[in-house]
Each structure stands twice: as structure tokens, then as C-alpha cells.
Fold this sequence. Notes:
The complex is a heterodimer.
Chain A: E1 3-5, E2 10-14, E3 19-21, E4 24-26, E5 32-39, E6 46-52, E7 60-61, E8 64-69, E9 74-79, E10 88-96, E11 104-106, E12 110-115
Chain B: E1 5-7, E2 10-13, E3 19-24, E4 31-37, E5 44-50, E6 53-57, E7 64-68, E8 74-78, E9 87-94, E10 105-106, E11 110-114
Parallel strand pairs in B: 2-11
Antiparallel strand pairs in B: 1-3, 3-8, 4-5, 4-9, 5-6, 7-8, 9-10, 9-11
Amino acid sequence: AQTVTQSQPEMSVQEAETVTLSCTYDTSESDYYLFWYKQPPSRQMILVIRQEAYKQQNATENRFSVNFQKAAKSFSLKISDSQLGDAAMYFCAYRSANFGNEKLTFGTGTRLTIIP
Amino acid sequence: DAGVTQSPTHLIKTRGQQVTLRCSPKSGHDTVSWYQQALGQGPQFIFQYYEEEERQRGNFPDRFSGHQFPNYSSELNVNALLLGDSALYLCASSFLGQALNTEAFFGQGTRLTVV
């Protein structure tokens, strides 16, 4: 079974600064997908960024980028130029690439606070 | 596009009762998954429905059951409610035809409180 670990329950960053959220995972599979989801107080999970394990290039979406280290099973999220609207719970999630096993396995989350 | 809609948004039930939660998937999606998110935790996978059949199931007891209708909407039923069933229940929809290439879209959840 796959597991996802987020070791930082809370993080804070000054507005306009950069912050990195950590995530490690455990799997015996070679092909899979990794995601970062944002959950604001509205409760809706919003996809921030995704990474395919077979791609060596790190994914980037505007101010959000990842550092994917497959051998180390590490998948960190970097938020640049932090904005007040970035304040939320952030969840790292794993999904197998095997057809028939599309469930998401989530970590326990990191609460990000933006300091004005 | 209304996205994924869930009802009700909040619900209070008494221990031992039964509850039904509802989910309408995003337009064009045919697969619905349900997750339970306890306070301060990440979501836990309950089960997934496709073509009106349970396709995959997580580690939840048989008190948790579901249904998918021909229009792809879905229900989550929980029998004999326990205090520990208090949680946010999230519904996520996706399109199985491109399962590996489409993201799951989530609804805003139903907050269930068991007293």
C-alpha cells in the first residue's frame, strides 16, 4: 500500500516571499502521479499542480513549482511571490498509474499562513 | 459549468441513524469517488462508482454503501451512525475514458455531525 507523509503541520511565510512545502511518499510502483491540492476554508479541494513519475522535468504552474526526486521519493511544492490568497491547507496526494486503481492517497496536510 | 455539486452542505444526525449524501458530477464526467475527511486529517478514499457499479473500495466497513444512477450522479449511504463518522464527506468526479490524463474535480463537501 502507498503512503504519503507531510511532516510540516504548519508553515508561515511573509507576503511576496517564497515557501517550500515538503512531501515524501512510499510505493513499490514505478509509474504513478503526484499532486498538490489546496483546500481553502471553503473546503473545496483545488488542484494546484500535478507530476507524472515518468517525466524527469519538474512541473511548473505560474508561481507554483515542484521538486520531484523519484529516487528519494520526495515531492516538494515551492510557492513563489506568496499572496494572501495562497493561505490554505495544502495536501500532497499519490495516484497509481494502474488502470482500475485511480484512488487518491493523501497526506495529513500542511496549513500555510501568509503574513501581510 | 456547475462543477461538482454536493447536498446537503451540513447535516446533524443522531447516533444509530442512517444518512444519505448526494453528489452530481461535473458535466462530461462519468466516475464518482467518495472520500471521508476527519477533522485535521487528509481525505480517506471510501469507494468509486462507474457504470453504476462499485469499482474500487477503500478500508471502510459495510455500513458505508453507495449507488450511482444512469445520469452519473451518486449517493453515499451510511447506516448505524457512530460518533466517529463525524467528518467532511467529499465527492470527486472524473472521466474514466481518460482516467490517467484527467484530474479529479472535488465538490465542497457535506459536513456530517453525529451526536
